[in-house]
Amino acid sequence: MAAADNKTYIGLSFGTSNSVIAIINKENRAEVIANEDGEHKTPSYIAFSGEEEYHGSQAKHQFVRNAQNTILGFRDLLGKAYSNELAAAAGAEGAKVVDQDGTPVFEVTTVSEEGEETTLRLSAHDATVRYLVRLHTTAEEYLGRKIDGAVLAVPVWFTAEQKTSVRAACAAADLPVLQLIAEPAAAALMYDLGADASHDDAKDALALVVDVGGAGADVSLVGVRGGLFTVIGTQHTAEVSGDSLDGVLVKHFAGEFKKQTGIDVLDGKHARSVRKLTEAAEITKRTLSAATTAPCAVESLADGMDFNGTINRTRFDILAGRAYNPLLDAVRDVIANGGYTPAQVSQVVFCGGAARIRKLQSKVALLFPESTEIRDEVGELDEVIAAGCAEQAALIAQGAIEVDAQDAAVPVLAKPIGLQLSAEELVAVLQKDTPLPASRTVKVALPAGEKRAYLAVAEGEPVAPKDEEDEEDEEAEEKKQPLYRPSKLLAEMVLELDAADADTRVEVKFFVGTDRKLTIVATEPKSGKSIQAEVPQN
Amino acid sequence: MTADVPFEITLTAAPATAPADTKVHSAITTPEERFLSAVGVYVQHYRSHLSKSADGSLDDHLKAHAEHAAAAAANTASADLDDEDDEEETEEMLEMDPKDWKEQDHYAVLGLSKLRYRATLDDIIKGHRRKVLRHHPDKKAAQGNANDDGFFKCIQKAFEILTDPIKRRQFDSVDPEVSTEIPNAKAKGDFFEIYGPVFEREGQFSNKQPVPQLGAMDTERAEVESFYEFWYAFDSWRSFEYLDKEDVDGGGNRDDKRWIEGKNRKERAQHKKEDNHRIRTLVDQALKCDPRMAKFKEEDKTKRNAKKNARMEEERKAAETKKAAEEAAKKAAEAEAANAEELKKQRQAAHKQLKKEQRALKVLFKNSAYFVAAGATPSAAEIGAASEKLDKIIAGIHDLDALVAARTGIEAAHAAGNGMAKVDEIIAAL
């Protein structure tokens, strides 16, 4: 109920494997709604059986027996040209992908009531339009109102063509796009990273968004500077995903089944058995996120033999242990490529259904020192992005952001700028990656017994994290370990005061304009004494 | 807002190498470019700021937002404090027995008797909160009135009914404070002042919202017509369950219950019928009294008359043209006839002349004794031959002048004595 001038906006997370619709409820908060099947997430599947067309979980449920007529993974084909590798990857499961004038199209067979077979060719665009129309209807039926627009989240790595294709599909589905936002930005919004900019350190944050979805994982480093979000870096890995973890379970259960019956379902001749087992394993995996043991049962898995197995969480964690490594590598890479160290990451936030796995979270958390907040508390993780989109839609409805504001390249500080306290310590006032123009004022106290304020303004570089013992020492002294050490002295200033005591504070304002000129103004409010230094650009 | 003071720093003493005054060492490292995501509450300020001037500061967009937020907060605060309520709580109301909830005025209990059906859910929630704060049994107990929770129960009942959309409609349907009177058909005064509020009041029962308003004297005709159309097809949700008689002691047997139920149903239907009739009467009456309808009728009449006049004028004009045309035709015919007559006369005259000339020719033949030798009496055969020639000439020459020329030629030739030769010459020339 995005109330402003009676427009109804929704947030939509359109994923490779699942999509989630979120609305703005009466309290002006994001709320994920259920589809016709009563589920919060709608699998991105379209199936054709006879002359009927099925969507979402109805389509997914018949995947086992109707794979060749089930279209999946169509989102990632949007805006792409045909190539053999692409077709092989996309058509590995589900409907075949063939070339039609350079565009990859899915080929499915529909059977009319008279038993007449027709081959239907659907491009990724066609499939998406059909799917989006269904989501659109779901939302409208739930709300009982016409929907005037939606905010959609797309991965950071989506190319301009892919974004254009998403827009085109939405337009064809009569769902006006208010804005396409980056998935990590939506997550950051939902985790309220930049909202309370008035709160002390919360103004600036460096968040690592770990999004583990059904078909791949994205790790993004998001800088939050004065309430502004910049995606500093992102890494996509297809190796860690809900599906790959299902694969781990499938392998395990297939081994057990082989032991029980002597039938190897993974020998390439039991495609249908594998699909059955995958479906069951997915449920087992979800159960494991909540319970410590979970059963996996498939009736008539192969050759009429039933399968019954259980697995406990520890076992699963051991099995999947190595599977998380690509994700951890991606996390390290993203941080290093952004020019940061893990200690500087203030928050790690999780989203995506597979990020619910405790082991995955703790493995990621281990990369960071204790000072980094690890967060996953905003509700169901697979709904975070859709909810973030809805929040953004609410902001648009309130007029806080214009419709279809585009992400834009802006100049940002390449190094943190702050006050040098010693040769080893720098307090960053303006953080790295702060969009220009940037300004920040700090209050500084004078050293005991001094009447001169000596301000050394410098650029900094991150300090390599110390080992744990040292950290504990630092904590004992109730002093933060310095995050930065000075790398380049920019200016030195001296403010002479007539008198000073313990309550004297000097306000130091740092300002960098878009002309890259740094201005520092130090003022003592009581006496009104002030000095100013300007550091021109090179 | 504390945005200006993110944290506090204690400076260290100046090192020995420190200069005595400001000294600039080097410029900042060249900025990099990053993609700024257009999400969150601050982006818009930043963007608009950036487009306005290159000299702004990061804090400015925070400040702008803070002001915005503060203004919004002030608005809500003032709305919260808006204590227009304080309606008098009558002694009678306070002493009501919660069991008689059907008789209580739920709006009055929550201090909303002025708003009534116009009260929003928000108003109801606020009213309820206010009343609960004042009348909560805990508070009464603190004042020494233990077990005085009668009015509190009334408040809860009122809240229960007014927040349940179905129950609220049932109550609104029979709200005794809202008049269901329809104005007297012969009421004198301004039509719009009399009927406007009535229609507005009745509009609350409409399933279709928004309900068109009565409007004013200068309302467009189409609008007025759609207004009456709407009201003739009025779809009301008004229902009368609230008036149901209940099995008071609750101990009645099934038959009793059924009988009461049946009676209630009948009564409800009767009420509904009466209500529909009431609306119908109201609309009929309004339509009859509506000065705009009279105006439209008048306009129609003038229009119709104008049309009629125009038609008549057209007919008259058509008749005139027709008559003129006929006259012209007649004149033309007459002229033609006269002409023909003239021609005929001329023709007759010419014919007469011709005959005369023919006769003269015949006389010439006869007088010249048929051109036999002079003095000789023509024989019958000669006469016959000459007559034949004469006939040939007459038959051959129709032109008067030619005939005259022929005759004079023959006359002249006869005088010369060779009339016959001339006759033969003429015949040969034919």
What's this model, at a glance?
Chain A is α+β, with helices and mostly antiparallel strands. Chain A contains 12 helices and 28 strands.
Word description of this protein:
The complex is a heterodimer of chains A (538) and B (430). Chain A is built from 12 helices and 28 strands. Chain A has 538 residues and is an alpha+beta fold. Chain A has 3 domains: 178 residues, ATPase, nucleotide binding domain (Nucleotidyltransferase, domain 5), CATH 3.30.420.40; 81 residues, ATPase, substrate binding domain, subdomain 4 (Actin, Chain A, domain 4), CATH 3.90.640.10; 119 residues, Sandwich (Substrate Binding Domain Of DNAk, Chain A, domain 1), CATH 2.60.34.10. In chain A, α5 packs across α11 and α6 crosses α7. In chain B, α7 packs across α8 and α12 runs antiparallel to α13. The longest helix of chain B has 77 residues. With 430 residues, chain B is mostly helical. In chain B, 63% of the residues lie in helices and 3% in strands. Classes of the chains: A alpha+beta (538), B mainly alpha (430). Chains A and B meet through β12, α5, β14, β15 and α11 of A and β1, β2, β3, α1 and α2 of B. β15 of chain A pairs antiparallel with β3 of chain B.
When the domains of chain A are counted, the total is: 3
The secondary-structure class of chain B comes to: mainly alpha
State the low-pLDDT regions of chain B, or none.
Answer: 1-6, 53-58, 75-83
* Main sheet record of chain B: none
CATH fold-level name of the largest domain in chain A: Nucleotidyltransferase, domain 5
Major sheet summary line of chain A:
6 strands, mixed
Measured by residues with Cβ under 8 Å of the partner chain's Cβ, the largest interface is: A-B, 96 and 56 residues
> Helix count of chain B, per DSSP?
15
Strand fraction band of chain A? 35-45%
Oligomer state equals heterodimer
How many DSSP helices of chain A? 12
Spans of chain A with pLDDT under 50 lasting ≥5 residues? 197-202, 469-479
CATH class of the largest domain in chain A: Alpha Beta
Q: In percent, how helical is the residue content of chain A?
A: 25-40%
**What is the CATH superfamily of the largest domain in chain A?**
ATPase, nucleotide binding domain
Order of helices and strands of chain B: EEEHHHHHHHHHHHHHHH
Mean pLDDT figure of chain A = 83
Q: Tell me the total number of β-strands of chain B.
A: 3
